[in-house]
Specification:
Layout: H1 3-10, H2 15-27, H3 32-74, H4 78-93, E1 97-104, E2 109-116, H5 121-124, E3 127-129, H6 133-141, E4 145-147, H7 160-169, E5 173-181, E6 184-193, H8 201-256, H9 261-272, E7 275-279, E8 285-287, H10 299-305, E9 309-311, E10 314-321, E11 324-332, H11 340-380, H12 386-395, E12 404-412, H13 416-429, E13 433-437, E14 440-446, H14 450-463, E15 467-475, H15 480-497, E16 503-504, H16 506-509, H17 511-516, H18 521-542, H19 546-555, H20 560-567, H21 571-585, H22 592-608
Helix pairs in contact: 2-3, 3-4, 3-8, 4-8, 8-9, 8-11, 9-11, 18-22, 19-20, 20-21
Length: about 600
């Protein structure tokens, strides 16, 4: 072979350089035989050149595949591997753009995962329904497809927004091959050109090889993720078991040391890594910060199952003593789920809470019994027993120095034990006594304003969801029994009048307290009907003011003119109304005896309003 052709092959010269050798030989007048020989040698050199180029391209492909295989073993970041695969595929196929999509089976679509060479953001975020366009068809069928000119190829299902994205990228020729893992299609790898052209078999083969590497990378990433998840699960489980053991030890130590609900909540909050609140069955906060949300809806489920229940991002566990629900534990982990060991720790904490509350209840009941016994002894004591009782009160740090206030209450809507505990706490805060006496709850505290004490008692009961009717009286250490009787008469009078939920002292009820103390609501209603019933019925039926006129007439000492001034009406109007009263009650209603009855009935009627 001519040395010139060898030099050109060595220098990797372009095709034009080989043609120039023939042209030069013809120009200098070489013979036809010499030119023909040069042409033969040129054809051999060009075939060698094509073979060398093919070998070099094959070497580049193999090198790229080898580098990709090396990446699979060295790089754990699946996004970095896929980006490298897409970039190398574009370089080796000399494509204008390459991209990789992954299938979203629940959505029935394939979405862009990695692109290289894309011009528009719309294309990078494109999602194609499976079966739509060339990409969707490859992703659905698992078979390779290519087209020399996509826009004019009717084999594919075209969609307007997809064709607009393709037109925005100026795409013409597309080659797509599937990504498969164990026979399942998970996506597609595509190469495109912005000019019309075919795809020779070796390019399909090369892109298929890259797709196989991408599939391996995705599967490895999934396996690594599963392995990492398993490792994390094992680590978390080990940590949870150790945490549960630590919580068990701390709760046991706390129980032995006589700790309270606040300490239990603090331990559980620290160990479980969340905000813990302990609520009474009625919802009152016992420890921690009040839990928000509708956690109360999960209490019945927690009681029925005997386990901690997840509800609205929180965990709810109940503290039970037998069938008695004594408290509810609400743990807010900020949405973080608890493992089984952590749930068992919360349930164990609920059990310890129940034990702590039962112990506290037993102690409180003992203290209440002792306080109630002392209160009962004070109310029933003879004078000679008072010094000894005062000494007992002193040892309990109870103040019996005047001024004292005594309150007797009837409770509705609140369980008697809960009401008694509420009064006991109130008495303890004020260094007084509380207990049950003769079927009613009694509070004795140092105070100068008995009505204020009664209102305070009613407020405490209302805070627990109940209602208290309270009679109060000022008390003296030497006459506690008399003060109790006075307050009890006030209570009975309020109940007789139907003024449930009110507080009154003797001054607030006047003569009515003395007259009604031993009677009941039925007797009072009968008295009002007999004495004042016709007038009340007349007013109600006609919207008149006979009752108001009678009250004003008695208040002014029976003087018509002054009555008219009080009512702002003419004296003749007053006289006409009084005549109507005579028609209803009889002409003797002004007699002293009837008048006293009417005045008392009017007084009772006003108190009932």
């Amino acid at each position: 072979m001519n040395d010139t052709f060898l030099d050109l092959l060595y220098d990797q010269a372009p095709r034009e350089a080989f043609d120039a050798v023939i042209a030069t030989a013809e120009a200098v007048g070489r013979t036809d035989e010499e030119v023909a020989e040069l042409r033969r040698q040129c054809d051999v050199a060009l075939r060698l050149r094509e073979l060398i180029t093919h070998r070099q391209a094959r070497e580049a492909e193999l090198r790229a595949l080898y580098e990709t295989a090396s990446d699979l073993t060295a790089i754990r970041d699946v996004d970095a591997i896929l980006t490298a695969i897409v970039r190398r595929a574009r370089q080796l196929l000399n494509a204008d753009m390459t991209y990789l999509s992954l299938n979203d089976e629940p959505e029935g679509a394939s979405y862009m995962k990695v692109t290289d060479g894309a011009l528009t953001p719309e294309f990078r975020s494109l999602r194609l329904p499976l079966g739509t366009g060339l990409l969707g068809l490859v992703a659905q069928t698992g078979a390779p497809y290519f087209t020399e000119d996509y826009q004019s190829d009717s084999r594919f299902l075209h969609r307007g927004y997809i064709d607009e994205a393709v037109a925005g990228e100026k795409i013409r020729a597309i080659l797509g091959v599937p990504l498969t893992v164990e026979g399942r299609v998970i996506g597609a790898l595509l190469a495109v050109h912005r000019s019309v052209r075919p795809f020779p078999p070796h390019e399909v083969s090369l892109l298929t090889s890259f797709a196989a590497h991408a599939s391996v990378a995705l599967e490895n990433a999934r396996l690594f993720a599963d392995l990492d998840a398993a490792h994390r699960t094992m680590t978390e489980h080990t940590a949870a078991v150790e945490s549960a053991a630590l919580a068990h030890d701390r709760l046991t130590d706390l129980l032995v040391a006589g700790g309270g609900v606040e300490q239990v909540a603090s331990v559980l909050s620290e160990v479980l890594g969340g905000a813990l609140a302990v609520h009474a069955p009625g919802g009152e906060l016992l420890a921690g910060d009040a839990a928000g949300g509708d956690w109360a809806d999960a209490v019945d489920e927690a009681i029925a199952s005997g386990r901690a229940v997840r509800h609205d991002g929180r965990y709810v566990a109940v503290a039970q003593a037998g069938a008695d629900h004594v408290a509810t534990l609400v743990l807010d982990t900020g949405g973080r789920p608890l493992g089984l060991p952590q749930r068992r720790t919360l349930e164990r904490g609920a059990l310890v809470t129940a034990l702590v509350l039962l112990l506290a209840r037993t102690v409180a009941e003992t203290e209440d019994r002792l306080g109630g016994e002392l209160l009962g002894d004070l109310l029933d004591a003879r004078t000679e027993a008072l010094p000894a009782l005062r000494e007992r009160a002193r040892r309990r740090q109870v103040v019996l120095d005047p001024p004292l206030a005594i309150a007797v209450a009837a409770i509705d809507g609140l369980e008697r034990f809960a009401a008694g505990r509420a009064l006991a706490r109130l008495a303890s805060e004020q260094r007084g006594l509380a207990g049950e006496h003769s079927g009613r709850l009694v509070l004795l505290v140092p105070a100068a304003d008995p009505v204020a004490v009664g209102q305070q008692l009613a407020g405490v009961v209302a805070g627990g969801g109940g209602r208290a009717t309270v009679g109060v009286a000022a008390a003296d250490p030497d006459t506690l029994a008399d003060a109790y009787a006075e307050a009890r008469r006030c209570l009975d009078t309020l109940l007789t009048l139907g003024r449930v939920g009110e507080v009154s002292d003797p001054a607030g009820l006047g003569l009515t307290r003395l007259l009604l103390g031993e009677n009941g609501p039925d007797e009072l209603a009968a008295y009002l009907r007999t004495t004042l019933g016709p007038v009340l019925d007349y007013d109600e039926a006609r919207g008149t003011s006979l009752v108001e006129t009678l009250e004003a007439w008695f208040a002014t000492g029976g003087r018509v003119k002054e009555t008219g001034s009080v009512l702002h009406v003419h004296p003749n109007t007053v006289s006409q109304r009084l005549d109507r009263v005579a028609d209803l009650l009889g002409s003797d209603w002004r007699e002293p005896g009837r008048g006293l009855d009417l005045q008392l009935a009017l007084r009772v009627h006003r108190l009932q309003r």
